Amino acid sequence: MTLNRTSMLLCALLVGCAPALDRSAGVGPITPDYTVNVASPWITPEQAVMLAAASPDGIRGTFRLVVRASGRQSGNLYLNSEQDYRDPRNITLVIPAALTSQPDDRFRKPVETRLSGHALLVVGTARKTRINFLAGGRPTGKYYFQTHVVVHDMRQLTDLGPVSDDR
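Structure tokens predicted for Lipoprotein (167 residues):
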């Protein structure tokens, strides 16, 4: 049987569009892993939020974020990747009071002043954290979720310097 040019192009197109088979396992098409961007050595806040929401134990990795807002509560320092800490895309670095009072040559100014507008790399575990609304110091039954990375040692942080916030 002879194939004309059109038939050969059609066959090539069909073969090229067929799903790749995992011959080592002997079954089914290969499904790519979309959970990590292999072109990037770190995890973005958006990726961290999605991955932490899908994993009860959180997601361990190196996260890159720009500090856009900060706050303190009960001595703890909170560095946020979004202006509004309630934004579902936000990732919050939780730095316990004991760490912010330790001397660290890299952070001679108050940490929140020093790092505002800076890109950071942080190594740790991002976890989905329930935040209760309070009235008179008591939970109201209403809540929302944030994604937190707790910093246990300031060496987990790498300051990449100030960035323009053009997103």
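Helices lie at 5-17, 45-54, 97-100, 111-115.
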